[in-house]
Amino acid sequence: MAQDGRVTATVHRLPELVPPPTELPARTAALRADVRAFLAEERAAGRWTPRPDVWLSGWDERFSRELGRRGWLGMTIPKEYGGHGASALDRYVVTEELLAAGAPVAAHWIADRQIGPTLLRFGTEEQRQRFLPGIAKGEVYFGIGMSEPDAGSDLAGVRTKAERVDGGWELTGTKVWTSGAHRAHAFFALARTSPRDEKNRHAGLSQFIVLLDSPGVQIRPIPLLTGAHHFNEVVFDRVFVPDDMVLGEIGAGWKQVTSELAFERSGPERFLSTFPLLVALVGELAGTSGAEREVGGLVARLWTLRRMSLAVAGALESGEAPELAAAVVKELGTRYENEVIDVARLLVSIPPDPGAESGFARLLADAVLHAPGFTLRGGTNEVLRGIVARGLGLR
Amino acid sequence: MTGAGMTTSVNAELQELAESIFGDAASGDTGFDAALWRTLEETGLARLTLPAAAGGSEGTLEDSAVVLAAAGAHAARVPLVETDLVGGWLLHAAGVPLPDGPLTAAAGSLEVDGTTVRGQLRRVPWARAAAGVVVLTDAHVVLLDPGAVEVTEGTNVAEEPRDTVSVDGPAAAVAPAPEGAAAELRLRAALGRAQLLAGAARAALSASVRYAGERVQFGRPIAKFQAVQQQLALAAGEVAAASAAASAAARAAADTGFAAPSTRFAVAAAKSRTGEAAGAVARIAHQVHGAIGFTREHDLRLWTTRLWAWRDEDGSDADWNRELGATVLAAGPDGLWPLITG
Asked: Out of B6, B325, B329, whose CB is closest to A23?
């Protein structure tokens, strides 16, 4: 404070930490009702059981094709590529309903969330024609090949090498933690097309569309701590990728990869992974008293996260790229997914049971065993906080 | 690409005006800021959301959210929520003409016999500075003249007036309480408080970011240490959550009114979430500031003491969580998601 008692240190302008509120367009109410009715019907018919973390673990190709048939995949893809030309907010409604229901969305998840939009942005006409219609039908599945044994959070450390050969590129290297690679048709691989430059670590990286049945591709399971097979190691031994399967520009890989982060980081999958457990918790506690405060706290945080996520979705729809706000949503949202577990296990005296068919014990077991991934995938929370710190001007 | 009405852009001009007015007035003093109040009246911000018939500017609750967040960010010493969102609204709804000047408002029990009232109200905000004390009792809206009441001074932990008002005599006006007034009063007060909290949280973060960039230890600004960066990033997350919750609740109230169950849910969640953020942001702000922030000479206390005071006023996070939890447990497992999506 200055000598005259006036406040001097007040307004240091902060960046926009969250965009203004977004309301979903009124037309989405009917869409939501349709999706809900469909999900209720599927569950009633016993076609699947709600599970946590379904976008990693719920692989069900019948379900994906059924969503495609109903027009709920590739929603933002233009009609000429087999999509539906809808807005990202329509897609938001569909995905949040699917995740809240704990429905098995893993098969199409990556393709629908990021492959489609990336192909529209950086893909050639031929690539779009080739892949987008199948993505919208729920028949073509993709993975993501970014991390490597020595390149996790520090993605610029990618060593997979793409060497120029006649008519294309030859890839050699190893990708890890690739979810669903053993079932997917293709993935986007980030590889080095020119030698590493310590002064510009992000230069010389490029993206390739690699068909996973290409000669020289070996896929090996990396079982999760439960033993379940979702992750894979994908080894390239001089895998030929033709020129027409280069994604975007050679050398622009880093820019292409990071330009999609705001989409990837702010969606409802960043705070709904344990929502089916919260539903089961409410089921256990309904009609009792004494736990209102704890349940209310979880609900207040969830409601807020959804408003934040929607605000980012609205900004994205307006053509902005609120990367800082997206990092905030993911950082808070993935910690929230863990908080649901922390609160649920203290309120209900039912131990987690991975052998149970369904119910609180099974959902708790699945949630506990999957929780370590929540705050790692798509950028660890420490990296995200670093991004926020940079946004605040601290680094 | 944006459809009409899909996103609201903050009323930038109003925000600019509010920032400038509250920023010019900010000081470490205590007590009512009469000069600031005059400016607010002259600019139409004092009765922003009230109808013209009540001397108001007919702004929306989203406009009010922008102004209140700025008031919170500059620790403004004026009863803005009490005058505009609560007291003025209640008098106008009850058909009682509004007196000039700042108002305060409280819900409480008074004995009402014709125009004679008797009783005591505790922790009434800014009562000592108010030109009228508006009281909602079980059945009545009562307007008390400050000359006709006894005010015993008290404060909250931010040294803001929270006075005891005793009355035994004639009221300036008595009218029947409008239908649903008690429920709406609680929501209005909580909504206003949530905006103030969001603003104060933002200011505490802003001061901390600035301080971390200036304070040098171990040969460099403490902002360069990852340990400090990570803490400030956590605080930023809390500030973002508080702002998002408070703005979304204002939007809900503006769009669908306070009687809508979805607005009640939104306001409850917003007061809960801003209250939760308040503690986290104040803790990190003080940790980053070190000992100097813990002194009277430093400005940080202006925001942190308000965060501590306001999180427990107009319903604490625990109070609103209990209400939300009861709603959710009554709705059952299948009712949870529809409550969230409103």
From this structure: B6
Any B CB within 8 A of A321 CB: no
The single residue of A96, A264, A323, A337 carrying the catalytic annotation is A264
Instruction: Using 70 as the pLDDT threshold, list the residues of chain B that sit under it.
Output: 1-10
On chain A, the residues whose CB falls within 8 A of the CB of B229 are 385-386, 389, 394-395
Give the gyration radius of chain A's Cα atoms.
22
pLDDT category of residue A263 using cuts at 50, 70 and 90: confident
Determine the Cα–Cα distance for residues B266 and B262; give it in Å rounded to an integer. 6
pLDDT in tens, A116-163: 999 999 999 999 999 999 999 999 999 999 999 999 999 999 999 999
Considering only CB atoms, A11 lies closest to which of B19, B326, B330, namely: B19
Nearest to B27 among A7, A18, A286 (CB): A7
- Sequence ranges of the domains in chain B: 12-176, 181-341
Residue A7, pLDDT score = 62
Across the beta sheet with B173-176, what order do the strands follow?
A: B103-107, B132-136, B140-144, B173-176
Structural domains in chain A, CATH included, are 32-140 (1.10.540.10), 145-251 (2.40.110.10), 260-391 (1.20.140.10)
Q: Which residue of A has its CA nearest to B324?
A: A296
Chain A contacts of B244, Cβ < 8 Å?
A: 18, 21, 304, 307-308, 311
* CATH classification code of B12-176: 1.10.540.10
Instruction: Tell me whether B337 touches chain A (CB under 8 Å).
Output: yes
Contact flag A303-B19 (C-beta cutoff 8 Å) = no
Whether A249 sits among the annotated catalytic residues: the reply is no
- A295 interfaces chain B, CB cutoff of 8 Å: yes
Closest CA to A126 of A249, A257, A247: A247
Average pLDDT over residues A63-79: 98
Q: What class does CATH assign to B181-341?
A: mainly alpha
pLDDT in tens, A266-279: 999 999 999 999 99
The pLDDT-based confidence of A205 (bands split at 50, 70, 90) is: very high
pLDDT for B9 equals: 52
Per DSSP, A113 falls in state I
